[in-house]
From TrEMBL:
<protein>
    <submittedName>
        <fullName>SUMF1/EgtB/PvdO family nonheme iron enzyme</fullName>
    </submittedName>
</protein>
<dbReference type="Pfam" id="PF03781">
    <property type="entry name" value="FGE-sulfatase"/>
</dbReference>
<dbReference type="InterPro" id="IPR005532">
    <property type="entry name" value="SUMF_dom"/>
</dbReference>
<feature type="domain" description="Sulfatase-modifying factor enzyme-like">
    <location>
        <begin position="486"/>
        <end position="572"/>
    </location>
</feature>
<dbReference type="InterPro" id="IPR016187">
    <property type="entry name" value="CTDL_fold"/>
</dbReference>
<dbReference type="GO" id="GO:0120147">
    <property type="term" value="F:formylglycine-generating oxidase activity"/>
</dbReference>
<dbReference type="InterPro" id="IPR051043">
    <property type="entry name" value="Sulfatase_Mod_Factor_Kinase"/>
</dbReference>
<dbReference type="InterPro" id="IPR042095">
    <property type="entry name" value="SUMF_sf"/>
</dbReference>
Length: 649
């Protein structure tokens, strides 16, 4: 297969934009700069004064062309966004944020980790539905509203000084329909007291949506996923700088140059080296998205990058007024020695204080002078670390030091850039000693090799990331048909139930044992007055623990995904009506995400978006990786189970 792009190289649309020099910009050139993500930094220091002049010309022209007034940034309820330098995208069921053992949210643990490694967070995006939405007919709003204790979780974040974004998935058009999206999103904002909305897959929100959300939550902050059109900086207080490639000599972020109060967050979700994002954010006075668990895949930050983040936010939070209101000189003049070493800086001047935010693009520490004259090294490094940052402050002679200086911590640079790998480990099932059902399909003992088919989603499969250091994954690298090989050995024959457990059989189990789940939410939600309406249909609205409890009562257990496939490929497994996915004994955890492999497929299929879990019936060799939610949300209308038994005689 011939790819039309190299996934490890930025695409043309990711690249920064050259600023024409040599003459004032023409109307056509000014309009072209409206489309920039980053303005290229000129390599020759002699060109930089004119470059800065051309940037100022563009900004003045763009303000005039778009009748810019900035009133959205004057809203007192939204003023926090201009200082929101660090935001984390977090899956609601991240095992730092939720304890499956205690069955409760653990924001104190999540925030303590963020404080220790990143210097704390200014905001979180509570990610909720994708990549599990589409498994059944629950819509994106259900995946918020049906979470017990979510309002209290938001309040806990607020008490810690952390703002909360909810996520809007405009592509969710094929699940259960309720009110229109604007009304539903407005209600979610009001119900949970969220501060902002992340616009998944969108650059901008429709003006009518902006207006309605503002009525529902005055001061709401909207943040799109990619390059925000210049004219919409007016009503979107923040935007992602996602997959923005910088120039070799660091450039200027167009949206933040246009409006200094507009906060941008650099993010490259699949990258393991965040140096370029961090350095661009430091030079531009903006922020970074921390996203360590990307839809169930561990993409953790190195100690070096986390230390750089800690150092950045210590200054950015303390000197916020200077960064927003001071005179900003990008690519400020430095000593020739610093320039030759690949050291660059922005200069910020306000009253008696001048701050330089400094980066070292080189692979060696720079020990020489950065600027002429005496300056205070805020990190007390005495150097600009390789691939790191520095902060220098000059106070005018006879003037007082800034009152915020005491808030800046002299945090050390950490050179350890190794990727912090995690391995997902399987929950080991216990052997069984019960008698299998008479018609169970027996899989013989001994070694086996399986070919597993799956769809290439952002969730990956068992170990590692599906994309490493890739720019935006696109077809044929996304949602394509893939295979993997699994091999193992069965110590003894295994009998797999020929049919799924039915509602009637599960009712017998409840009557015989009095079973009560530790977490009752959504348990047998389709039953009426404690009884099923259709006893012969596969039981659903049961989670892994419910299924395990039933199978243990029958002297068995759940089959592993391999055992299920081996039995299915004999042709001996029957499907109930309606067909439902089957739980398997394949629970894994890497300490941050729990997942399981589903088998069989279901008759339900959500239509209208490629982002849904794929529905329909599937052959035995097909698997879907399902991220496990907590608090009963794993229970749904399209997942049932069958049991298995170890045959020991």
């Amino acid at each position: 297969m011939t790819y039309v792009f190299d996934p490890l190289v930025p695409r043309p649309i990711d690249q920064p934009t050259e600023v024409p020099l040599g003459a004032p910009l023409s109307p056509e050139q000014l309009a072209a700069l409206d489309e920039a993500k980053i303005f290229v930094g000129p390599a020759d220091p002699a060109d930089r004064p004119e470059w800065r002049a051309r940037l100022r010309q563009w900004r003045a022209d763009a303000h005039e062309q778009h009748s810019y007034h900035g009133r959205a940034y004057d809203r007192p309820e939204a003023a926090w966004a201009a200082g929101c330098h660090t935001v984390a995208q977090v899956w609601l069921w991240d095992e730092l944020l939720y304890s499956f053992e205690e069955r409760r949210f653990t924001p104190e643990r999540f925030l303590a980790d963020a404080h220790q490694r990143f210097g704390g967070l200014d905001a979180v995006v509570l990610w909720h539905a994708y990549p599990v939405i589409g498994l059944d007919d629950r819509n994106q709003w259900d995946f918020y509203r049906d979470v017990p204790g979510l309002r209290e979780l938001v309040e806990t974040f607020h008490s810690a000084g952390v703002r909360v974004f909810v996520d809007y998935n405009p592509w969710d058009v094929g699940t259960r329909r309720g009110d229109d999206d604007a009304a539903e999103l407005s209600a979610v904002l009001a119900d949970f007291g969220a501060d902002g909305v992340f616009l998944d897959t969108l650059k901008k929100a429709d003006p009518a949506l902006v207006e309605q959300l503002e009525r529902a939550r005055p001061g709401v902050v909207l943040e799109g996923e990619s390059k925000l059109p210049v004219e919409r900086i007016e009503d979107h207080s923040a935007s992602w700088a996602q997959f923005f490639a910088d120039s070799p000599v660091p450039g200027v972020l167009r949206s933040h140059w246009y409006e200094r109060r507009h906060m941008q967050h650099h993010v490259r979700r699949w990258h393991r080296d965040h140096t370029e994002e961090l350095q661009s954010a430091w030079l531009n006075g903006v922020g970074v998205m921390v996203w360590e668990v990307v839809f169930g895949v561990w993409v953790g930050w190195s100690q070096r990058d986390a230390a750089t983040m800690r150092r950045m936010v210590s200054v950015q939070r303390a000197a916020g007024e200077l960064l927003r209101e001071g005179e900003w000189t990008p690519l400020a003049p430095l000593t020739p020695e610093a320039e030759a070493a690949g050291v660059y800086a922005s200069r910020w001047e306000l009253g008696d204080w001048t701050l330089w935010t400094v980066v070292n693009r080189g692979d060696s520490d720079y020990l020489g002078p950065v600027v002429d004259g005496l300056v205070l090294d805020l990190f007390a490094d005495g150097r600009v670390p390789a691939r790191g940052i520095s902060a220098l402050l000059r106070v005018a002679e006879g003037a007082a030091e800034p009152p915020w200086l005491s808030q800046v911590a002299t945090l050390p640079h950490d050179p350890d850039a190794r990727f912090p790998h995690r391995l997902a480990t399987r929950v080991v099932h216990k052997p069984t000693n019960g008698m299998p059902e008479d018609d169970a399909v027996v899989v013989p003992a001994g070694p086996y090799v399986l070919t597993v088919r799956y769809r290439g989603r952002e969730t990956g499969m068992y170990q590692g990331a599906p994309y490493v250091d890739e720019w935006k994954p696109l077809p044929p690298r996304l949602h394509d048909a893939r295979t993997l090989q699994r091999d193992g050995s069965l110590a003894s024959p295994v009998a797999v139930g020929a049919a799924e457990v039915t509602n009637g059989q599960f009712a017998e189990f409840l009557a015989a044992t009095g079973y009560q789940p530790a977490e009752p939410h959504r348990f047998l939600a389709h039953w009426v007055d404690g009884r099923p309406a259709a006893e012969d249909e596969p039981v659903t609205f049961v989670d892994l623990d419910d299924a395990r409890a039933y199978c243990a009562w029958r002297g068995g257990r759940l089959p592993t995904e391999d055992e299920w496939q081996l039995a299915g490929e004999t042709g001996g497994l029957r499907r109930g009506t309606p067909a439902v996915w089957n739980w398997t004994e394949s629970e894994h955890s890497d300490g941050r995400t729990r997942f399981v492999m589903l088998k069989g497929g279901s008759d339900y299929r959500a239509e209208g978006s490629e982002w849904y879990v794929e529905g329909g019936r599937h052959a035995p060799d097909y698997s879907v990786k399902l991220l496990l939610p907590g608090l009963g949300l794993a229970r749904g209308a399209t997942v049932g189970f069958r049991c298995a038994w170890d045959v020991t005689r």
